[in-house]
Amino acid sequence: MSSKKKAAVTKKEARSTLAPKLRFPGFREAAGWPQMRLIDTADRSVRWSFIGGPFGSNLKSSDYVSDGVRIIQLQNIGDGEFFNEYQIFTTAQKADELLSNNIYPGEIIMSKMGDPVGRACLIPNRHDRYVMCSDGIRLVVDEKKNAKYFIYSLINSPLFRAVVEKTATGSTRKRIGLDELKSLPMWLPKKSEQQKIAECLSSVDELIAAQARKVDALKTHKKWLMQQLFPREGETQPRLRFPEFQNAEKWKLKPSGELFANRKEVGEEGLPIYSVTVNDGMVPRASLERNFYDIEDPAGNRKVHKGDIAYNMMRMWQGAQGVAPEDCMVSPAYVVLKPRGDVCSDFFAYLFNLPHSLRLLAVASRGLTKDRLRLYFDDFAKVTLCVPRKAEQQRISKCLNSLDALIAAESKKLEVLKTHKKGMMQQLFPSPEAAEA
After folding, report:
1. Residue 150 belongs to what domain range?
2. Which residues contact 326 (CB under 8 A, 6 or more apart)?
3. Structural domains of the chain, count
4. Closest residue by Cα to residue 33 from 160, 199, 186
């Protein structure tokens, strides 16, 4: 055999077995992980152990009901986590008609499309059974041969993700078919090593889940607190006031034009440019991962003073507003609110984001459809708001700012744990580069 043929055979054999950078004691001298297919991990003794969701025509919006058997949508399938917020249901009768597309707690569901394509999560134990959407894939792992948590983790690993991405089609939104997914290669060690890796990753996932619950609890507490500290819709007094304000004068209804003026100053050279976001308020434009085509010349932008509130005319009804942390510039498409004497801007940033405030702002906006709504300052100035004196505004905003800082700190801890897990997976699974070598 020629040296070229020998080299080709050796390279092919190397790809048929792969080894991770890090292996646990007892497995460091073991052979590389042999190549198999995703379908080889399915439990063939279970009917429909590897199957996609129903055709769209078999599960339509007309089949949705307020309660019954839950349908798992693409929005529920996270990258290693189940998102519970989006909930729709169908009848038990319809679920029985789609029995082959039912999926059960503890099983793996994958996504045939979206970002990232091929992502997977475990079905939670909240209902006895579920029905998959058309782009879901059920995988029941053969647990006699494999550790389920290992297979689930491997599907979400950089190695398998790279294989899926390479096979998926579509320029804007990637998609992969069931047949293509079945035959995709994956490299599996013996079950004993799978179990060791699964134990390690599951312990980290438990820490991540506990930290996520902590963050969610803080967010829930903040939501409850805001419901108490601000008057409810149709009311003029809050349920809860701080001790020093319990005997203070009542909150008063005032038009926004008495609280804010419309600042129309031209931008200045050297000032940073900020953007307004729905979730994070005002942020430096350079921190956003998108292209901007508006004018960077100071004369084409508006100046914002520290403590002003800037809002996006087209998205104010969604909460696109924030307080300027420093003197800066914004796009001329924004409105800049200059606070008058008895105004604490941070207080109003919270007030504007209350659900009933957003409804008021939407009603005041002009446009035939929601995607064309614009809130001009003259219309904003007529919106009536219920407000206390400035001292109480400051006390409320100080409390909520402290809570936001705590949420941010705990959220950062959560991200650190997720980054740690990502690094572990890069070490505990073979690399995508090794598979392509």
Report:
1. 33-188
2. 272, 306
3. 2
4. 186
